[in-house]
Structure formats: C-alpha cells, structure tokens
Amino acid sequence: MPITSKYSDEKFENILTEVAAVLEKHGAGPDLSLMIAGNIVTNVINDRVGRGQRKAIAEKFAQALLSSIDE
C-alpha cells in the first residue's frame, strides 16, 4: 500500500527546490550538505519530538533513509 502524505507534492517539491538552491548557492558539496541535513534532522527530533519517542523516530528515519538509497 503506498504511503500518502498530508502535504501536497507541490509544497514538498517547492521546499526541496529552495533548500537545494541554498546548498548550491553556497557551493556545499556532498559532505557539507549531509552534515547540514543531519543537523536539521537532529534539531527537529530534539525540538519537536517528545523525549520518550526520539530514539524510535530516529531509528525509523534511519531505516527510511537506508531503504530509499540506490545501491
């Protein structure tokens, strides 16, 4: 069963395009881009997820990341 999002594809794509443009503007290579993305994820989890759920959310995020990359 496909996963449906409460966010529109348009909204998601617009934000993704803007973030990618900022990284490109600053010449962020893969290593810096991943460091920034990792810090954003960490901040979102620490600031917006309850303490008791943080580890489970981080593990689910890591699993989703691993399943989404091409080998």
TrEMBL record:
InterPro entries on file: UPF0352 (IPR009857), YejL_sf (IPR023202)
SUPFAM superfamilies according to UniProt: YejL-like (SSF158651)
Domain of life, per lineage: Bacteria
Family membership noted in the UniProt record: Belongs to the UPF0352 family.
UniProt name for this protein: UPF0352 protein OJ16_04565
Protein species of origin: Vibrio renipiscarius
